[in-house]
Amino acid sequence: MSDTTEMSTVDAVDGIDYLDAEYADGPAASTREVRLIGGPPVGAATLESRDVGAWFGDRLVLDAVSLLMPAREVTALIGPSGCGKSTFLRILNRMHELVPTASLAGEVLLDGQDIYADGTRAQQVRLRVGMVFQKPNPFPAMSIKDNVLAGLKLAGLKCDDKDALVEQSLERAGLWREVRDRLNAPGGALSGGQQQRLCIARSLAVRPNVLLMDEPCSALDPTSTRRVEQTIAEIGHEVTVVIVTHNMQQAQRVSDHCAFFLAAENEPGRVIEHGPTEKIFAEPDDPRTYDYVNGRFG
Ligand SMILES: Nc1ncnc2c1ncn2[C@@H]1O[C@H](COP(=O)(O)OP(=O)(O)OP(=O)(O)O)[C@@H](O)[C@H]1O
Questions:
Q1: Average pLDDT rounded to a whole number, residues 139-160
Q2: Which one-letter DSSP state was computed for residue 96?
Q3: Left (φ > 0), alpha (ψ -120 to 50) or beta: where does 26 sit?
Q4: DSSP 9-73
Q5: Residue whose CA lies nearest to ligand 1 atom number 30
Q6: Chain-centre distance of CA 114, in angstroms?
Q7: Where's the ABC transporter domain (predicted)?
Q8: Cα separation of 9 and 102, whole Å?
Q9: CA of residue 120 to ligand 1 center, whole Å
């Protein structure tokens, strides 16, 4: 998509195009490989934005964002409040279009294919590009096991061994050992940090290629934060992760690459600089990046 495009509110769950296909390619995530029937392709994918602009109504909030988010690596989006990080993240899995006044320009390529191409359904994209939110949002009355399987059910995917998928997803999210004896307990009975890892397990259960995380630790205590960061480091080798964080230490701990967003007064947000995390923090090219990562503003 190269021109500004008005977007309609997204359709409800609109089924799966590839219900009859079977995908068993890609690396095994653990010793017990589980085959999803009708699932999206397994394995990480490269995500790339080209010249992305975003509007709410006639207000341009993001301008010309071109960013490569490499497969099997963690990219952190950093920058002061209001510079468009969450908007950009939501563009990456077509959630931006859930806002009726929203529009955008540019392209978002998932392994080279434009996720906004004609005929590509938002639901299909969101299966491949999952999202974990700021506040853990498990279904509180639903069992831990059913929470993990919830995304699968919603998407109409089938799995030939649900117990194995639950174990594998919880294992990948770093929660299995803590909950394996109480899989039928309600998700709402877990601590905040455990709930967030349950949400990560739920996202991983549909085998996304990319996992987007919007300040996933901001509602958590320091211990839970470190545990979720450990989980991010572990899954970062299997899926592509893009994380929005205000916590500079966290960005340094979890990410391989960083993109610094900034919006000057009455201007849209732009990427000022991006590159390897080490460089962004140790010797950035732009003085504004230096000032931001050293806490001088924002
Ligand atoms: N639904 C919306 N309707 C209108 N304007 C919006 C909407 N969502 C965000 N905006 C505006 O878009 C701009 C970018 O917001 P966004 O939430 O993407 O920034 P951010 O960098 O993620 O901020 P924060 O770090 O505070 O979460 C802001 O000026 C915000 O007010």
A1: 91
A2: G
A3: left
A4: PPPS----TTTT-EE--S--SSSS--PEESPPPPS---EEEEEEEEEETTEEEEEEEEEEE-TTS
A5: 82
A6: 17
A7: 47-293
A8: 9
A9: 26
What would the two tokens of residue 156 be? 């109409």
- CA–CA dist 221, 214 (Å, integer): 16
Report residues whose beta carbon is within 6 angstroms of any ligand 1 atom: 56, 61, 79, 81-87, 99
Unique residue bearing structure tokens 């995380």: 213
Residue 86 CA to ligand 1 center (angstroms) comes to 7
pLDDT at 58: 96
Least confident of 40-54, 136-150, 171-185: 40-54
Q: Which CA distances in Å does 74 have to 38, 48, 112, 143, 251? A: 27, 13, 19, 30, 9
Closest CA to 88 of 123, 55, 46: 55
Domains of the chain, residue spans = 5-293
Gap from CA of 233 to ligand 1 centroid (Å): 27
Higher pLDDT, 142 or 22: 142
What's the whole-number mean pLDDT along residues 222-239?
A: 91
* CA of residue 82 to ligand 1 center, whole Å: 5
Residue 167, classed as helix, strand or coil, is helix
pLDDT at 33: 58
Q: Which atom of ligand 1 is nearest to the CA of 215?
A: 27
Q: Which CATH class is domain 5-293?
A: alpha beta
Atom of ligand 1 nearest to the CA of 87: 18
Distance of CA 48 to the CA centre of its chain: 14
In the structure encoding, which two tokens stand for residue 182, read together? 């109480």
pTM of the full structure: 0.88
Provide the 3-class DSSP secondary structure of residue 260.
Answer: strand
Q: Whose CA is nearest to atom 18 of ligand 1?
A: 84
Structure ipTM:
0.98
- The H or E element that residue 146 is part of is helix 144-155
